[in-house]
Amino acid sequence: MVEESKQARWYLVHTYSGSEQKAKLNLEERIKGYGLEDRIFEVVVPVDYYSVVERGKRKIKPVRVFPGYIVVKMILDDQTWFVVRNTPGVLGFVGSGGKPTPLSDEEAKNLLENRISEDQAKEKTNFDVGDRVKILAGPFKDMEGTVQEIDVNKGISKVLLEMFGREMPVEIKSEFIQKI
């Protein structure tokens, strides 16, 4: 039997790896179905967003921070414990002796607040000044050069390319540049 606790805490819940989003949706449906919105407050799949290049195009992709886990903010009692534990896709709570162990406030803060958002990923390039890069599109496609400047606000980088036997600075959209 789980002890009653009147304070909402964050708990780490083990799921099938690759099925975190499905387990989250299943749990949210069960919360509504059982009318537990007043005791299970939030279900989160912690993700960071990264800028990746696929087929010559830069895309923003979500990457799960803890594959196989979701985080649930809830007041732990027998009913909430039962509903979460018996949700399809959920393997159980993280804790010792079969008893759920809440995350400390510091652990929860680090896990939930220090994430890379989509906007931050869009702003961040995967290269720095001085790096060797390859141009992915445009008239300079497949040419290699060295990054001289990066203008994050405009999304443009100045790259030194060797043309006609000498280095020439060329401004190129940062999304068409990949570090080599």
Output the strand order for the largest sheet: 10-9-8-7-11
SSE class:
alpha+beta
The helix tally amounts to 4
CA gyration radius, whole angstroms:
23 Å
CATH architecture annotation name of the largest domain: 2-Layer Sandwich
- Give the full name of the CATH homologous superfamily of the largest domain: NusG, N-terminal domain
> If you consult CATH, what is the topology of the largest domain?
Alpha-Beta Plaits
Strand element count: 11
CATH C-level label of the largest domain: Alpha Beta
Counting structural domains, the number is 2
N-to-C series of helices and strands: EHEEEEHEHHEEEEE
Give the terminus-to-terminus CA distance. 57 Å
Q: Strand-residue fraction?
A: 35-45%
> Biggest sheet: strands, sense, closure?
5 strands, antiparallel
- Mean pLDDT, nearest integer? 87
Residue share in helices? Answer: 10-25%
Low-confidence stretches: none
Coarse morphology: elongated
Describe this structure in a few short sentences:
The protein has 180 residues and is α+β, with helices and mostly antiparallel strands. Helices cover 21% and strands 38% of the residues.
Explain the overall architecture.
By secondary structure, the chain is α+β, with helices and mostly antiparallel strands. It has two domains: 9-122, NusG, N-terminal domain (Alpha-Beta Plaits, 2-Layer Sandwich), CATH 3.30.70.940; 125-179, Roll (SH3 type barrels), CATH 2.30.30.30. 21% of the residues lie in helices and 38% in strands. The protein is built from four helices and eleven strands; from the N terminus they run βαββββαβααβββββ. It has helices spanning 20-34, 78-85, 105-113, 118-123, and strands at 9-15, 40-44, 47-54, 57-64, 69-74, 90-93, 132-135, 144-151, 156-163, 166-173, 177-179. Strands 10-9-8-7-11 form a five-stranded antiparallel beta sheet, with no helix packed on it. The protein has a four-stranded antiparallel beta sheet with strand order 2-5-1-6. The chain has a two-stranded antiparallel sheet with strand order 3-4. It is elongated, with a radius of gyration of 23 Å. The N and C termini lie far apart (57 Å). The mean pLDDT is 87.
